[in-house]
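Practice problem: predict the structure.
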Amino acid sequence: MPEKVVAVNKDPDGNIIAVKTDGGQVYRLEQAIMQIENGNLTGVQIVNRNGRSYLRTYPDGTPENNLDNLPEF
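Answer:
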């Protein structure tokens, strides 16, 4: 069953570099992208800008579940 991202880890510039799931797994950004592609993470999508991949939640009008608003670990 897919896991949900519940916390993030950011670099000093505020960029997300890792995520933590409701199952306790921690994935670096590259690993999280692979997990999304394999259907193992839910509620997040991969966005490519300027040749770089980012994660973001699906737009749902609820700012509380945006990745930038999740707790940090």
